């Protein structure tokens, strides 16, 4: 099918479908019930950028920017950018040890319920088989449909399959290669690097300010139609239950195409009989059309609609790099609890090595999260928010890119979730002593009876008393833990 034929198909599906390409129609779409229940997913950044394993997953851009350390590193390690460009990493990206079943089994053990590979990153290399991009993992490098293999493995392990496309930003991503003699300027490779649109607004020092501005310079009509067709091909070929986008799609030029994309996706899902959603950042979509996502951050209070945080185990990079630093398991579990208490989900990223294996550090964290969820997952999965998300002095800092450092919770910090007549109270940093929760004091504004208190990790009933100031849960030896503990509180 040609791009024009596919574009015609898109318009016909919208014309004949329930959802039209306007916000009024799209606002009737509902957040999937499975998404609100599942709470925890895995994000995967795996691509050519894992071969140099230097800097971060933006290596494909930074290696062409004279102001970035990747530029000199590239010359010293591989040679000049006109002789060895980003494309020349492709034969080195063999993924010879990639095993989709092993990945899916690990994600299952972590307690994750959905899995989202990056189908295409900003570098323009598709990790899936496609009619519209010869630069793809089926044709080159691994010579395998990585996304397709992972989808099959997810199905075997009862994991919900999702997909991410960062194609939009490729419009300008390689543009610094236009400023000197590099292979980005070669006509032979224009279908990979192009358009690499260059203007001062997209220089290294101004790119973030420009792309954050909804009204700044946008993409061309030709690019936007091409982006729409390629994204709809992912929808039809892989039927992801979530379609995730990175940041630049909130630009004004994308708006008509976002409406078409959402209408096409939601109409296709109606045909499949599936519940789907779109993850977006900034103000790309109205809140009732898709699901808001906060990158490396969180909300500071309860949201009335489900939302998501995407973050990584690695602190320096989403993709694999040799000197990455990793968050401790305790920090990620605390973030998961905090996010869920505010009606959110956690999408946690791993960055596999170029041979297709997942690092020992990330594997260890995933398995430890899974062990904790085996004991405490009842207070996470299928829950909703309570009348307050928690108590204590520690909270998230509002905004993106705020979760690198571990929050300094104390024994007085709690987070609450709710399900089926029970409040789940998580003590974020246990000290082994009696637990005192002010929200469960007698004669509060919203008074209720407490029938019993159970320590979730052991299933044992715990003695407690309620005073005018607090509820006191009597400690035993199981209250000592380096990770949060959870009390199931049955209320009337």
Q: Can you walk me through this structure?
A:
- The chain is α/β, with parallel strands linked by helices.
- The protein is built from 14 helices and 18 strands.
- The chain has helices at 3-16, 23-26, 33-38, 59-62, 69-78, 100-109, 146-156, 170-173, 190-193, 207-212, 221-238, 255-272, 329-341, 360-376; strands at residues 40-44, 114-120, 160-161, 163-165, 242-245, 277-280, 291-295, 307-312, 344-350, 390-391, 414-419, 422-427, 435-437, 450-455, 460-461, 464-466, 471-473, 485-491.
- It has an 8-stranded parallel barrel. A 6-stranded antiparallel β-sheet has the order 10-11-12-18-14-15, with helices on one face. A 3-stranded antiparallel β-sheet has the order 13-17-16, with no helix packed on it.
- α1 crosses α11, α6 (100-109) packs across α14 and α13 (329-341) crosses α14.
- The longest helix is centred in the middle third of the chain and has 18 residues, at 221-238.
